[in-house]
Amino acid sequence: MKAYLILEDGTVFEGIHIGADREVVSEIVFNTSMAGYLEVLTDPSYAGQAVCMTYPLIGNYGICKDDMESDRPWPDGFIVRELSRIPSNFRSDCTIQQFLEENNVPGIAGIDTRALTKILREKGTMNGMITTREYPDLRGVLPRLKAYTTGKVVEKVSCKEKYVVEPSVSLEENGPLSGMAKFDKEAWLQGVREKRPSLVRELNGAGLQVALMDFGAKRNIAASLAARGCRVTVYPAWTSAEEILAGRPDGIMLSNGPGDPKECTGIIEEIRKLSQTEVPIFAICLGHQLMALANGADTYKMKYGHRGGNHPVRDLSTGRVYISSQNHGYVVDAEHLDRSVAVPAFVNVNDGTNEGLRYTGKNIFTVQFHPEACPGPQDSGYLFDRFIEMMRETDSAAGRGGTENA
Amino acid sequence: MPKNPNVKRVMVIGSGPIVIGQAAEFDYAGTQACRSLKEEGVEVILVNSNPATIMTDKDIADKVYIEPLTAKVLEQIIEKEKPDSILPTLGGQAGLNLGMELEESGFLKEHHVALLGTTAATIRNAEGRQEFKDLMERIGEPCAASKVVENIPDGIAFTNTIGYPVVLRPAYTLGGSGGGIAHNQAELEEILENGLRLSRVGQVLVERCIAGWKEIEYEVMRDSMGNCITVCNMENVDPVGVHTGDSIVVAPSQTLSDKEYQMLRSSALKIINELRITGGCNVQFALHPASFEYCVIEVNPRVSRSSALASKATGYPIAKVAAKIALGYTLDEIKNAITGKTYASFEPTLDYCVVKIPRLPFDKFITAKRTLTTQMKATGEVMSICNNFEGALMKAIRSLEQHVDCLRSYDFSALDFEELRKRLKVVDDQRIWVIAEALRKGMEIREINELTKIDSWFIDKIAVLTEMEAALESQPLTVELLKEAKRLEFPDNVISRLSGIPEAQIKKMRQENGICAVYKMVDTCAAEFAATTPYYYSVFGGECEARRTAGRKKVLVLGSGPIRIGQGIEFDYCSVHATWAFSRAGYETIIINNNPETVSTDFDIADKLYFEPLTPEDVEAVVDIEKPDGAVVQFGGQTAIKLTEHLMKLGVPILGTKAEDVDAAEDRELFDRILEKTHIPRAAGGTVYTAEEAKEVANRLGYPVLVRPSYVLGGQGMQIAISDQEIEEFMAVINRIAQDHPILVDKYLQGKEIEVDAVCDGDDILIPGIMEHVERTGVHSGDSISVYPAPTIGRLVKDKIVDYTKRLATALHVKGLINIQFIAIDEDVYVIEVNPRSSRTVPYISKVTGIPIVDLATEVILGKKIRELGYKPGVQPEAEYYAIKMPVFSFEKIRGAEISLGPEMKSTGECLGIARTFHEALYKAFLGAGVDLPKYKQMIITVKDADKGEAIQIGRRFEKLGYTIYATRSTAAALNEAGVKARKVNKISQESPTVMDLILGHRIDLVIDTPTQGRDKSRDGFLIRRTAIETGVNCLTSLDTARALATSLENAEEKLTLVDVASLGK
Prior knowledge:
The structure holds two protein chains of two kinds.
Chain A: E1 2-7, E2 12-19, E3 24-31, H1 37-41, E4 49-53, E5 57-58, E6 77-79, E7 82-83, H2 96-102, E8 106-109, H3 113-123, E9 126-131, H4 142-147, H5 154-157, E10 163-165, H6 185-189, E11 209-214, H7 219-227, E12 231-236, H8 241-246, E13 251-254, H9 265-275, E14 281-284, H10 286-294, E15 299-315, E16 321-332, E17 342-348, E18 354-359, E19 364-367, H11 382-397
Parallel strand pairs in A: 3-4, 4-6, 5-7, 6-8, 11-12, 11-13, 13-14, 14-19
Antiparallel strand pairs in A: 1-2, 1-9, 2-8, 3-9, 10-12, 15-16, 15-17, 17-18, 18-19
Chain B: E1 9-13, H1 25-39, E2 43-47, E3 63-65, H2 71-81, E4 85-87, H3 92-104, H4 107-110, E5 114-115, H5 120-127, H6 129-138, E6 146-149, H7 152-162, E7 166-170, E8 180-182, H8 185-198, E9 204-208, E10 214-222, E11 228-236, E12 249-251, H9 258-275, E13 279-287, E14 294-300, H10 305-314, H11 318-326, E15 353-359, E16 380-386, H12 389-399, H13 417-424, H14 431-440, H15 445-452, H16 456-474, H17 479-487, H18 492-499, H19 503-512, E17 517-521, E18 535-540, E19 554-558, H20 569-584, E20 588-593, E21 608-611, H21 616-626, E22 630-632, H22 637-641, H23 644-649, H24 659-666, H25 668-678, E23 685-688, H26 691-701, E24 705-709, E25 719-721, H27 724-736, E26 743-747, E27 752-760, E28 765-767, E29 770-773, E30 786-788, H28 795-811, E31 816-825, E32 828-835, H29 842-849, H30 853-861, E33 874-875, E34 882-888, E35 909-915, H31 918-928, E36 938-942, H32 948-960, E37 964-968, H33 969-977, E38 982-985, H34 995-1000, E39 1006-1009, H35 1019-1030, E40 1034-1036, H36 1039-1050
Parallel strand pairs in B: 1-2, 1-4, 2-3, 4-5, 18-21, 19-20, 19-22, 20-21, 28-33, 36-37, 36-39, 37-38, 39-40
Antiparallel strand pairs in B: 6-9, 7-8, 7-9, 10-11, 10-13, 11-12, 12-15, 13-14, 15-16, 17-18, 23-26, 24-25, 24-26, 27-28, 27-29, 27-31, 29-30, 30-34, 31-32, 34-35
Helix pairs in contact in B: 1-11, 5-6, 13-14, 14-16, 15-16, 20-30, 24-25, 26-27, 31-36, 32-36
């Protein structure tokens, strides 16, 4: 079946329909990761957007459900050049076609994704519609596209009730240490599939309690902490600061999430309260932006954002450059930052935009990129260890537990 | 960190002659790195024995030494030039080994020379088998269970603990020389023995066999701050067991999920960090197909063939960045030259799929085994880019120029299911065609996967192609079907063959429906940033990013495709120089080529680069977009010449010599008419199509005769026949490949072979120099030792050669380059062959005479006259130096290849010996080719009866040099009778000890074996030669070469004189 992608500027791409059969209007963004389409699809930060993969061959290794970053796909639509007709991977549970259909995600294949990317690069992110209907006259459609906004999506993607991610009590629970996996033919024949390998070599977080505010958190944020031994309590986005602090966490983690940070006025208020305590806070992506807003800084929408797994960021404390996984359309305005409140900790090597902040005189550091990777490079996973160290230091400075003083 | 201010004079070591496993990629990397160093104001002193390279040009380096690559020679150069640093990571394994040798001996320290780009400890840790294994163990990175052994009993004992099969890898060898997989003790002993001898340090790694696992490579960069990035990852379609150089490779990996991708990426970064590599590095992994289990196969702490491929696949200039890192820069300080916006510290992301296919030499070595193993056999490779795998595969196949254009090009339709199953287990260069046939016959993907271990994803893609073949055969050709076939890159002629519709009609249908190739840009960033570098590939469907530029005059330079025996790096040298010359003349330049290893496909050589197959249809599509003012074909070898006719049909003017004149030189009858008209003699001969006609002509002329197809390079299919029976045999071989052109049968004349390259402007000619071959006629010119200035011919012959050259160039209306080969018999001169185009000797003669003949030819093509260019027409004064070009072979890599020299070219590369005296030049040339004698002073002579007289003279000279001579019965008798002491050894069939035992005893320096004329029928001679080659013994099959070697050894000098080639002709 034919399908069309209609952009706000009137551009129409004709392709083949994939996934669910429904019409959808959304914000169109592109992601440049060459692998990790399932992680992209299940990243809640894509709620309210339709994603175009710039890599042309998608679905090659099928769907390995173990790799999902949340329990369902979030994008409104999926735009690809070509879907593989067979999946090939030892862990694959189903084809990507089945996955999209089962989860009611509409999409379009067979279009010139590079041409689309260039339009978004030149004109900036814009809205569009994926449909199987032919619109001979776009005049009726374009105003609808222009009117679309992602709105308050955080509430949609956040967990509804708090829950706990139990810590690993032994390293074996994390799966084999990367490089130590061994193929076990007997087990394989009985249908046992090996766990994903882990890079965590030490349970340095054992005994620590982390409160994770879920604005649309990717699973691997909690998993990265739990794998290091932290007990992670995940709270809905609208949880009050008081409730979180009542749980006496050793540290607070603010997650990634979708949409315009400035829409999250209530959450920002709670974060401001959290930031006035001594509890160490580490924030990623939307969490980073919300913390900045809570402390008087500004954010703005980028022309077409950063979405991919190849962005270099410089750690300003060491001068080292790391390749990072990114997914954001908004960014903190570092130029008008009050240095007495926060100073840049990371900067994007390509365009000089802010990639992280260190809050002056506080146990707070925040990053714009994704140290939890999935998809993308694992180079900045060390930041979870830095967070754990911070919690330990605060704890020892406070005698017992940092939460006592809160 | 900014540039290290202490680095001002850097010595760069090149990789030497082109051999299998170490080829043009190092000219590409070296050239790019030298330019990068010069950009930083660093003085570059270059050492490389290979004259056919661009890196040895005087505009690339400040000082150029085309000298043998031995530690001694490098020491001398260091003493003379006093560099402050040395960069050994650009010259492949050869360069790295030399750097190590100098470091280990303490020479570098003594002379205050710093090793750049790496440290000795790094090289030891990465290259020494045991050190590497220990390091990997320490950092928790898995390697296959293995042990380094230094003798056979240890190897057997260890293998008994881990079980067969095992893989054997000798330490410090090129392209996995001497390695292999042993399935039992007999094989283990054989391979181990060979490997131990070939290894520089006498070590072989015995390793658990992980054949059948996925083979994945990462190209990684690291700077001195410890910043790391991966440029690219690549997946081998052929699983572990086939050398990556012989595998079909795809970039990026296709069948890895993010988890596997990142797991291996993290491992690669960890390894490069532990090794503390500064620069580029290649890490190869084996990944279990049903698990996260992996093994690190090997690490190359230097630029490599894979890094060249990764550079071309992504647009990220690895060698350039590596050179900057060596100077002290960090990745975030180096600009990405493609985008101009981003920095070298980011990872390229692709929005297309790249396929590389190796170019294997089995068309040259028809007796060789086609099986692919861990020992590399490919001489070159092609790369293609498309936005789907099927299309990239189809484009790569037709880029090979091996008479293949689709998955039907090898016919396996006669095989039944059972035979196909058997055939699928054979790992050779035709495997994808066998898979296609199995799919056509209905074999399940699953079964093919089990038999071949090739991932199902790739097999399914092949199935997409065979399904399209079937659709084209059985369904009406609708617009939709045609569109889809083109999306999968089926060329029009294949669609025509399958559908039965004439090609012209298909083309018309395409034009009417707007189904035409569009071009996309390789920009390192999947369009995330605007890029300006015009590096394009074609796809069907979508937006075209290539724009026709106007303003300047525009020339299309056609490249020479994959490196193969007979058409090597020389033609890339010519293409690049012509491109630069056109550019200087104000032209906009466009290159089309498909070889990822070469300088010509670097993104900043021409104004625009189209990375495309060199077929009429693909070239036409570029012409449609660009509408060039002219095309130049005379620099791209036979590949480009073959496109001439089509370009003319498209209305593209051929710049320089006209197509009909090229035809006149190749077409026997036309050429005979020209010879008649110009009164130039040649060997009598005739043109034939069938074996019957050939025999008739041969009998009329009298045997021996030379039989060869027309329109081929490197004498492919050329043979000397001495009987009707041989004619029949050769004609059968020649006709096996499609033969549109007639076959030539000539009387074989024996004499001195002389060669000239000349530039002709229509009136005058310029001959930079006359070259004489050491070997008499009958040995292909590319396999002969070539000497400039010609040492043994007189004035009269020289004058005749100049005169004939002028007459031929004028009669053929040559504008540009012409290459002519002559035979001189006493004072008579005959023409053998005329090529109105650039030749193999162009770079060599340009360098040693200091006359840039490609530049001159380009100027002439553009209308300048030789006199205007500051040269006096005619033959130029002889240089003060003797320059000797020595062919270099890769026989040890190709099991079963016949090594005896004949009219068909077999060498893969060449090196140069240059000196003021003939003798020193000859010595250097042999040394450069790796003939470093004497060692044991023992040799074997076995020659045919006709050669006995000459053999006695040669034997006498070696005897004087202190050699003990062994000879087979009749040769021994002849030698002893003449007073040359020779010990008789038994033939192979006789009782032990035989000549074979002697060779395997590892105490022999040299074997001189002349095969009986024509094709050697005796398996004995063949076996002796193969054994000699495979055990690393020098084996000469021409007495002329043997005589030259004796001369060289008689005049061996301890200390060599050095010649800075960059200063010649100034």
